[in-house]
Amino acid sequence: MPLFISRLRRWFAAGAIGLVLVVAAVYFYARHKVENALKEVPGKIGIEIKQSAQGFTLSRSEQGRTLFTVQASKAVRFQQGEFAELHDVTITLYGAIPVASIRSTGQI
Is residue 73 packed enough to be buried (19+ CB in 10 Å), middle (13-18) or exposed (0-12)? Predict the structure, then answer.
């Protein structure tokens, strides 16, 4: 039985499409599994989140003058103890002279 080129092309095309579908299925399955695993990590290691907030600001003033300001894009407070985790933090310290200030950014 002779093997025709057109038939061979169809088999290669079907194989390539099948391979792409298998690779895509494995990728999405692994992605779904990793996302679910990341959600379970805090519970498995015993960390319970008590409160979470987007946009956090804390400042302190004395005699009508601001001493410092702490700004964070996200704050997470945990059940155990009174600890909080701040993300994308900006700390501004104001000096005795109104124009003097120090600004520091980072994660705490």
Answer: middle
